[in-house]
Design goal:
It is built from 6 helices and 3 strands; from the N terminus they run ββααααβαα. By secondary structure, it is an alpha+beta fold. A 3-stranded antiparallel beta sheet has the order 1-2-3. Strand 1 and strand 2 form a beta hairpin. It is rod-shaped and about 180 Å long. The N and C termini lie far apart (195 Å).
Length: 239
């Protein structure tokens, strides 16, 4: 052998960065990390067709091209919150291209950076959005409190009306009961008097008189058409 070239098949790590423009023409700086590995059985072909500097010839240009492509499809503001989604798309496309060379490549987008003017504009927008949200939240709170107060007033008014209705019905019921009681008392007294009147007969009067008589005859009792009763001595008594 005249020459021996060593090519590692261990996983390697490299960093890179670049500049691109978003769909809305905002300047975007990006930084990324790659983890890449050369498969052993592809080493002779890679050496023959690409050489030992396959990272700078294949991997790095491919990664940059794909990142720029994905950034160009998105608005700058959307990139702030969708870095993971862009990373997934970049990895899918880079893996497909590099696998043809026997290279396993994984890309991690570390950061998107924007111009100061754009960053300030986004911050101001976020502040305005937060203020709007705070105002809406405050308005919703006040509206809810007003609705709750109105509902409480309605409930209190309905409760007061219901209590008044119940008290009125109770008063009417008490009056009805008192009236019924008075009527019943009158009816009872009338019934008693009627019963008494119906039960008084001459025989009953004589009977009651006999019960109350002390056995002494009256010494004199006179009335129209009456014969005087004279207290005469009994036989054998002295006059």
């Amino acid at each position: 052998w005249q020459n021996i070239t060593t090519m590692t098949n261990k996983e390697q790590r490299d960093n890179g960065s670049g500049l691109a423009f978003s769909k809305d023409m905002q300047e975007v700086s990006y930084a990324y990390t790659t983890r890449h590995q050369l498969l052993s059985n592809y080493a002779p072909n890679v050496y023959k067709t690409v050489g030992t500097d396959y990272y700078n010839i294949v991997i790095d240009p491919t990664v940059n091209a794909v990142i720029k492509e994905q950034i160009g499809k998105a608005n700058a503001e959307g990139l702030i919150t969708s870095r993971e989604g862009v990373t997934a798309l970049v990895n899918e496309e880079v893996a497909e291209i590099c696998s043809a060379y026997g290279l396993n490549v994984t890309v991690i987008i570390d950061n998107f950076d924007f111009t100061d003017a754009f960053t300030t504009a986004v911050e101001n927008k976020q502040v305005a959005t937060q203020e709007k949200l705070r105002a809406q939240t405050e308005q919703e709170r006040l509206t809810m409190e007003a609705q709750q107060k109105s509902e409480r007033n309605r409930i209190e008014a309905e409760s007061a009306a219901e209590i008044a209705r119940i008290n009125a019905e109770a008063d009417l019921e008490v009056q009805r009961i008192n009236a019924d009681a008075a009527e019943y008392a009158g009816q009872k007294e009338a019934a008693v008097n009627t019963a008494i009147a119906q039960s008084v007969t001459p025989e009953l009067i004589e009977y009651q008189y006999a019960l109350r008589w002390d056995g002494k005859l009256p010494t004199y009792m006179m009335g129209e058409g009456s014969t005087p009763i004279v207290n005469l001595p009994m036989m054998g008594e002295e006059e």
